[in-house]
Amino acid sequence: MNNLALNRMVAMLFMVPQNVTQQSKAARFGHKGIPVILQQSAAALGLLVISPLLLLTMLFIRMESQGPVFFTQVRVGENGRRFHCYKFRSMYLKTDPKYREPEPSDSDREGVCKKYYNDPRITRVGKFIRKYSIDELPQLLNVLKGDMMLIGPRPHLTTEYDNYDRNIMPRLYCKPGLTGLWQVNGRADTDFEQQLQFDKDYIQQQSIWLDIKILLATVPAVLGAKGAY
User: Fold this and answer.
1) DSSP H or E stretch at residue 215
2) Mind giving me the DSSP string for 55-117?
3) 3-class secondary structure, 168
4) What sign for the dihedral angle of Cα 23, 148, 125, 226?
5) In which order are the strands placed within the sheet that holds 70-76?
6) Which of 34, 67, 190, 194 is most buried, judged by most C-beta within 10 A?
7) CA-based nearest residue to 74, from 64, 62, 65, 82
8) What is the pLDDT of residue 194?
9) What is the CA radius of gyration of the chain?
10) d(CA 188, CA 226)
11) Angle subtended at Cα 181 by Cα 172 and Cα 223, rounded to the nearest 5 degrees
12) Hey, how many other C-beta atoms are within 10 angstroms of the C-beta on 119?
């Protein structure tokens, strides 16, 4: 056996696969917040309590514009696993006569997290449910399925994962959440780097007490509608 073959064999024996490394880091950080079973139980109870609001939202969406009530989008979760994130549809379909593409001048932020403060694609109902985060409520189903938690990092887009791989890696060490530090600290008013920092802070400081504080801060943040559009 020549030296080259021997070196390759040694490299194969001691090489640690990337997914194993990532899983070991996830295990090290672990989940230190409110227990999963309690969060899923709260999600089930929440769906039951707000079911009249959900039904009304579905009705108004169907009355205003054509298309499905729900919108699903692929997001990246724990250990890089991709899942379908549920939301109420808040935009016109491209086939709808009212649909209009936003102009470049409509954007108030460039880059991966491009935002349009007055996005013409958003319906009137969509503006309201986005303002008060009602469009996010179907994600309680994601919590029940085990894709998400009630509290955690923001579930990021696949484009964010592909373009900011190294920066977002810490966010993959735990499941994303319906609410979190980013959601109660400005939401769309924050840029991508600030969002990353909020998520990293949550992962490093995660505790039951922090989860409780975030839950308590979520209600005034939603009612105040700061950074929601």
Assistant:
1) helix 208-224
2) HHHHHHHHHHSSS-SEEEEEEE-GGG-EEEEEEE--B--TTSTT--PPPGGGEEE-STT-EET
3) helix
4) negative
5) 82-88, 70-76, 156-157
6) 34
7) 82
8) 82
9) 20
10) 8
11) 135
12) 18
Residues 6+ away with beta carbon under 8 Å from 174? 26, 29, 30, 31, 78, 149, 152, 153, 203, 206
Q: What is the pLDDT of residue 188?
A: 67
| Per-residue model confidence (pLDDT) at position 28 | 47
3-state secondary structure of 179: strand
Helix (H, G, I), strand (E, B) or coil at 149: strand
Query: What are the distances in angstroms from CA 49 to CA 42, 87, 88?
Result: 10, 18, 18
Block mean pLDDT (10 aa), the chain, length 229 = 44 36 44 87 96 98 95 90 96 88 64 68 95 95 96 85 62 85 78 82 90 92 70
Question: Do 98 and 92 touch, CB atoms closer than 8 A?
Answer: yes
Q: How far apart are CA 3 and CA 173, in angstroms?
A: 39
What does the chain come to in residues?
Answer: 229
| Dihedrals phi, psi of 225, to nearest 5 degrees | 55, 25
91 neighbors 123 (Cβ within 8 angstroms)? yes
Token pair, residue 136, equals: 């996010």
